[in-house]
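Q: What residues go here?
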């Protein structure tokens, strides 16, 4: 019996990679294929090494040559290989071959699976750090429909061998978690990093599908990636599916509207529409290569230090219902968000901002943690093709309309601001809806929680009905006493 001492802390027991692989191998009902492209056969290697693999592994394949890979899985329209569609084809193809070649009547108790990955490790010049997709298609009972988990990785190691090792370990964690934590998707995600340095690899997209995950909303799982510091930003489309940021942002003109959207209001939509009309008329902006992102920061989701998942879903569902792409990020400061977007594009970037938020970015306290202070932050923010589209506000004291010409800054910041203003980095929105300047989401939220209805005409069409029908944001209709 192990000895415990006073003051000992409880530690979660995590099985070793060897034990995880062996547990899969020793289950005579789990049976499948490993198909790996681009980083060797690192995942399958773990299962072979621990022994007992003959009853588990039907086949391993590494279709490394591009022509050979295309012959097996089909050529992609975009001629690329490290993509979500390639991974999906690999999983579908390997399961089809498994079912065709292994008669089910001879193996009535088998739970089939196919694990696959398509990886591009760091290049020889070490300019491109590499990324990849991995996933598993599997059953949790014979004859049942298949479930699927797909994840996208971005490597931060600068050595191919270390990237390969990380893929091997994470692949084992995925296979083990898929079978033994299928009833707790959050646990699957949490344990993907077992025995891996979390700073070495980033997971920025994950999607679960299939009958066993019927009640799972992938947007919540995206949020979990952020909460667990597995990535800095996640995105999902209007249909509610998690999407790869690179796929949306790469070489695009990007217009971003940051807000709490609690709830989304008419003023938010007016800000978006009016700034978009200006943005697409910029000299180098092609409307067909333009993406609009509604962004919420993690700090905007916290309530008393905790993230309220229900509140998050209310915001996400409303924005998606309006047809918008949503990004959740850990970028409290705007310059970090711009820096992130600049990783994917050298085209025009636009930030739609209200005056009060714009004034805030000139507060030096936000930049105490960087050596160059506000100068370094603004250098990162504005050195790219960036413009701020400024939505005015009404002074609560005088009803004066405040825009870029009369906003108030600390005296030390005035000349600093003029540099950006006179270089065309700040553009006023003039054709705004004057009535919308008195709309504030915090007041609407208070009225929602109190069960009042005097807020419904301040929201975009259909949003108020959704809130009341689904009891979002704590809505409880106030009963009238008679």
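A:
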């Amino acid at each position: 019996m192990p000895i415990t001492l006073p003051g000992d802390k409880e530690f979660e027991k995590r099985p070793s990679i060897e034990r995880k692989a062996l547990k899969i191998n020793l289950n005579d009902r789990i049976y499948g294929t490993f198909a790996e492209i681009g980083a060797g056969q690192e995942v399958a290697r773990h299962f072979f090494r621990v022994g007992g693999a003959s009853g588990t592994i039907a086949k391993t394949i590494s279709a490394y040559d591009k022509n050979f890979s295309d012959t097996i899985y089909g050529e992609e329209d975009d001629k690329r290989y490290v993509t979500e569609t390639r991974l999906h084809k690999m999983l579908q193809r390997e399961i089809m071959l498994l079912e065709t070649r292994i008669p089910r009547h001879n193996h009535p108790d088998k739970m089939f699976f196919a694990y696959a990955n398509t990886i591009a490790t760091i290049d020889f010049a070490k300019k491109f750090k590499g990324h990849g997709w991995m996933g598993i298609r599997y059953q949790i009972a014979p004859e049942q429909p298949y479930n699927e988990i797909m994840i996208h990785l971005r490597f931060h190691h600068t050595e191919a061998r270390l990237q390969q090792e990380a893929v091997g370990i994470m692949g084992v964690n995925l296979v083990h978690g898929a079978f033994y934590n299928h009833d707790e998707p959050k646990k699957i995600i949490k344990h993907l990093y077992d025995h891996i340095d979390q700073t070495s690899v980033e997971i920025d997209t994950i999607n679960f599908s299939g009958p066993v995950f019927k009640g799972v909303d992938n947007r919540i799982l995206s949020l979990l990636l952020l909460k667990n510091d597995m990535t800095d930003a996640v995105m999902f489309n209007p249909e509610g599916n998690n999407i790869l940021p690179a796929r949306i942002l790469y070489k695009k003109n990007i217009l971003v509207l940051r807000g709490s959207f609690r709830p989304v209001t008419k003023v938010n939509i007016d800000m978006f529409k009016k700034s978009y009309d200006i943005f697409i008329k910029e000299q180098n902006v092609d409307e067909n290569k333009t993406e609009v992102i509604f962004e919420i920061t993690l700090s905007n989701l916290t309530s008393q230090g905790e993230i309220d998942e229900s509140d998050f879903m209310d915001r996400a569902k409303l924005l998606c219902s309006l047809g918008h792409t949503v990004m959740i990020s850990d970028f409290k400061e705007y310059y970090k968000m711009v820096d992130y977007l600049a990783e994917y594009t050298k085209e025009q970037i636009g930030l739609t901002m209200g005056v009060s938020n714009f004034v805030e970015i000139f507060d030096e306290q936000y930049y105490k943690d960087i050596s160059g202070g506000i100068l370094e932050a603004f250098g990162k923010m504005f050195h790219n093709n960036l413009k701020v589209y400024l939505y005015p506000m009404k002074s609560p004291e005088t009803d004066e309309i405040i825009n870029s010409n009369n906003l108030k800054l600390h005296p030390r910041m005035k000349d600093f601001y003029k540099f950006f203003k006179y270089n065309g980095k700040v553009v006023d929105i003039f054709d705004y809806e004057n009535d919308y300047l008195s709309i504030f989401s915090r007041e609407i939220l208070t009225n929602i929680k109190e069960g009042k209805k005097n807020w419904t005409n301040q929201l975009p069409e259909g949003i108020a009905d959704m809130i009341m029908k689904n009891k979002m944001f704590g809505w409880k209709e106030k009963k009238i006493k008679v």
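A: Context that may help when evaluating the design: The chain has 16 helices and 18 strands. The mean pLDDT is 92.
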